[in-house]
Amino acid sequence: MAMSQGPAPRAGPEDGVGEASSPAHSIDPADQLARLGRSWVWLLGAATVTLVPGILALVWPDVTLHVLAVLIGVYLLLTGAFRFVAVFGRDSDRVPGLIVAVLFVLGGVLCLRNPLQTIAALSLITGAVWLVSGIVTLYTAIATKDMPHRGIVMGVAALGIVAGIVVLALPAESARALTRLLGLWLVLLGLAETAVALAWRSALRRAGITGRDTSGQAT
C-alpha cells in the first residue's frame, strides 16, 4: 500500500550472457508483478474486492451462515492475492507485506475449509485477520517516513485495528447480526482503501507518470 522509489532498470542484452538470455529478462515474472503492483488500478481493484462483499452483506442480511462463510472466505483469498502482488512493487522490506498476504490467504482457507462452522469461529478468523494486518500495516507506515500519503495509510490501518477489535470483542449472537457487522466494516474498509488508490493516482499524475508507466514507483 505504501509507495517508494522503484527498482533500477534491468541491464540490457549486452550486460548478460548473450542474446539467448534477453527474452528471459524481458518477461521476468517478478518484474511483471512489480509493474502490476505499482499501478493505482491494482489498488482500486483490491478496494473493490473489499467493498463489494460488504455491500452484498448489507443488502442481503438474511444470508445463511454457510453463504456468509463462503463470501468472507472468497474475500480473504482475493485480498491476499492482491496484497501478494503488491509486495513485489516495494523496494523496502517486503516481509511485513508478505506476512499480511499469507494471513489473508490462511484466513480465507479456514473459512472455506468448513463453511458450516460456528458464528464465533467465523468472527474469530475475520477479527484476527483484520487486527493483525492493521497492526502490521500501521507499523510499516510509521517506520517508512518517506511514504507518500502516509497519513491516509495510517488511517486505514487504524480502521482495520478497530474493526478487528470490535468483531472480536462484540461477537454476534446470530448470522444476521454477524452479517450486518461484517458488512459495515467491509464497506468502511473498502471506502478507505478506495481513497488510498485515488490518492496514489493523484500522486502519479502530479509526477507526470501515466497509469501505463509506473516503473519508477513502487507499492
TrEMBL record:
Region Disordered, residue ranges: 1-25
Originating organism: Streptomyces lateritius
Entry's transmembrane regions: 40-60, 66-88, 95-113, 119-139, 151-170, 182-200
Name the record gives this protein: HdeD family acid-resistance protein
Pfam families hit by this protein: DUF308
UniProt keywords, alphabetically: Membrane, Transmembrane, Transmembrane helix
